[in-house]
Amino acid sequence: MHIKDAREGLSSLVCLAAGAAIVVMSLGYELGTALNMGPGYFPLILGGILVLVGLIMGAGAVGFGAPTQKTHIAVDLRALWALTVVTLAIVAFAALLEPLGLALTCFLVLTLAGIGSRLLRPLEAIATAFVLSAVCVVLFVYLLDLQISAWPW
Questions:
Q1: Residue 24 belongs to what domain range?
Q2: pLDDT tens-digit profile of 18-45?
């Protein structure tokens, strides 16, 4: 038995670790039943699905018999940049939601994440952020009536 694809193997380990952590944390909340869900029910199901995905990915990364070729993991600096920008966008969302409101926070965070993308040019990232921010405000503030302020004023 050998590892056919090291990247897929590492990805499966990340999924397994994240899924297991989510399952363990969700057990600290009341689970309830399928008809009367508690706060830990949905995270438990999602964590279990993530563990299952990690197991399936791990099975695809493992080969049996003699290895055919060595795999090398190359670090792409552009991918590292995208990972950094998306991580900063998540942290910025948590930090800016309360003082700026949902509309401005979504716009800034989505613009930041779009700049880190290989697929969007800066003007396209701004236009996408504008449309998605409007959709978020309409959906979460006005249709679902979540207790989030849409604007800072």
A1: 2-63
A2: 999 999 999 999 888 888 888 889 899 9
| Single pTM value for the model | 0.57
Are the C-beta atoms of 67 and 1 separated by less than 8 Å? no
Total domain count, the chain: 2
Evaluate whether 101 touches 149 at the Cβ level (below 8 Å): yes
Q: Which residues contact 104 (CB under 8 A, 6 or more apart)?
A: 96, 133, 151, 152
Shared domain for 23 and 57, answered yes or no, is yes
Residue 136 lies in a domain: yes
Structure tokens at 83: 């990972």
> 41-61: per-residue pLDDT in tens?
989 999 999 999 999 998 887
Query: Which pair of structure tokens corresponds to residue 145?
Result: 């009536």
CA distance 31 to 68: 47
Q: How many residues does the chain have?
A: 153
Distance CA 133, CA 124 (A): 14
The sign of the dihedral angle between the CA atoms of 17, 8, 90, 30 is negative
* Separation CA 105–CA 149 (nearest Å): 11
Closest by CA to 97, choosing from 142, 60, 148, is 148
